[in-house]
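SDR family NAD(P)-dependent oxidoreductase
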Amino acid sequence: MRGRTVLVTGGTGGIGRETARGLAALGARVVVVGRDAGRAAAAAREIGGEAFPADLTRLADLRRLVAEVSARRGGLDVLVNNFGVNPADRTLTEDGVETAFAANVLAPYVLTTGLLPALRAADGGARVVNLTGGLPDGPIDPTNLQGERRYRGWTFSHYNHTKTALMALSLALAERLAGSGVTVNVAYPGHAYTPGNRATPARAFPYVYRPLAPLIRLLGPVLLGDLAKAARSSVRLAGDPELGGVTGRYLNARGEWARWPASVLVEANREAVLALCERLAAGRGRRE
């Protein structure tokens, strides 16, 4: 990775920070993106990288970040879309987009498409790595992509829904960008006790899992505290030289190629997610 430039969103803590550390250790120049300017600067100093503060739920910040990164010389070799949120309640951003969809799906779309010229300018091809999470193997409901009809149920979680939608978006972008020199793949980190998870209240869980929340708080630091382990799949997709040119694939937490969820393989689902991202990115997102 020496001499290659990598941008990691949500790189101020948790799996994102471990991903940034891992890629810096491989010799990459790492750009850390975080909502908090002070934390982003501290994370960048630790690894000898750069910091770009941005709130990736805001279209204005996404567009500014695209402009600032695009102004750099030398292109962008790897984009790691790690940032994600799991709100306990359904809310809308200032752009009128449901918050989880804005962070977990729309932001990766806007950054990937906006930074395509910088990615195409990289020598030897470029990579986009999208991180899924939670339990991203359920159905995709094209009529509920922003939690309009259902946000949480006995086993349903809108967070999981958005992470599955991100996988559908990733495969759609991989198909669209085939032969362009830019690859798109998905990494699953598995379960980890991150700062984001620690801050998630019990009411954010599906109803059937809420009784487990206290147990996770108790055992999480012991059983799920190795964040470097959770970052292995994203570091591999971003930095393994043997994966150059590999696109449209899904790497699980064990570092093995996995089958896409059945819902991701439905073309109509991929088209629905892509079409919604295109519409929302154009600023046509005001809805209740």
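thats it. The mean pLDDT is 90. The longest strand covers residues 29-34. bye
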